[in-house]
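Dear colleagues,

As part of the handover before I leave the project, I'm documenting each prediction I ran so the next person doesn't have to rerun anything. This entry is a single chain, and its sequence is reproduced below.
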Amino acid sequence: MNGRSVHPGMSKNTMVNAATILMQFHGLLPAAEKPEFTDGYEGFYHLVSMSGDCELAQATYIVRDHSAEKFAKKKAFMRQAAELIDAQYGQGTLELDLIDSYMNMRSMVEPHPYIIETALKAYEMAGVEPRIIPVRGGTDGARLSYMGLPCPNIFTGDYNAHGRFEYVVAEELVKAVYVLVNVAQLTAELPA
């Protein structure tokens, strides 16, 4: 957000408070579509950080969805919100930079069903009951899938990821290693 700082005593009709406009932009995003209010395959707008003052303010968001169509709609909604801000305060007030970092990996993995079959067999060999759940954030598996190496996510034994109380259960971490070793063994046995 680009604002105009003016002494508060002389700011009427001249000050453009970038921090306030940033809050206005955030308020335009659907309140019910934040990570803390969504679950499973529901997408979200996640405000990761914000900083600023009267003259310049910025925010970083993560936007996720499990459908490419819904993901595109979320990005289009953000563009419309930015256009609304610019229409109110002037062109260039809000500079929106959308960068695709993690896409849903499903479309990259589904054409290769043996990948999922191999992972499920590896779980079985390790004595672990697999739970197939949607991953609601960016993952190494998503990044690798879009770099040409389709791969599902495999558990690591972690809980409360990215939070202050994140932890790993040692026994589950060991099981994850067994699963990975089994994946390697099963993959080596696949026909070329």
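The mean pLDDT is 90. The chain has two domains: 8-89, 106-188.

All the best with the project,
I.
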